[in-house]
Amino acid sequence: MSKLFVSLSSGIAGLLFAGGVLAVDDYHVQPGDVLTISVWKEKDLQGDTLVRPDGGLSFPLAGDVSADGKTTQQITEALAEKLKRYIPDPVVTVAVKQIGGNRVYVLGKVNRPGEFMFSKPVDVMQALALAGGATPFAQVNDIRILRRDGGILKSLAFHYSDVERGKELAQNVLLLSGDTVVVP
């Protein structure tokens, strides 16, 4: 698994990874991710922090900070604001050390059903490819994407044949963390 780092030098923030640079706004932290947090010139305020299942993280002097769905820049700003009570003008750096929260699930009549981690956006066709494609007995025009939205489960239709022919491409949505692709 490649490591991601946040660079905050010269006011330009980005995620660096083996394949290149993404804007910080492109990655939103999820429960299960491991962040490396450091405060410049404060040796006791450096270390790795796991984002808890409730989406929060704990950091010395700052206490609990909400991280779920936020960018590393937003987490950096929240930590700096909380640390100002103890450290004048704190310089905080947040890096995504390990992605553990961005997962999609593909199940049903595919060659390799299971859980798949992703670090960049993945659409339905790409998720099916990760799962080794549909089996010969799959009903590819009845594929469903299950998504939780505010605690409510929604079902999105996906007709493989349309997308394969270059039609109705809007249904090839980008998957969100926790989405499940069901291939009957």
CATH superfamily grouping of the largest domain: wza like domain
Note the gap between the termini: 31 Å
H/E element sequence: EEEEEEEHEEEHEEHE
Radius of gyration: 19 Å
Q: How much of the sequence is in beta strands?
A: 35-45%
> What is the third-level CATH name, the topology of the largest domain?
wza like fold
CATH class of the largest domain: Alpha Beta
Mean pLDDT rating: 85
Strands in their spatial order, largest beta sheet = 10-9-13-11-12
Number of strands: 13
Largest sheet geometry: 5 strands, mixed
Write the layout of secondary structure elements.
Layout: E1 5-7, E2 14-17, E3 20-23, E4 34-39, E5 42-50, E6 56-59, E7 63-66, H1 72-83, E8 92-98, E9 103-108, E10 114-117, H2 124-130, E11 143-149, E12 152-158, H3 160-164, E13 180-183
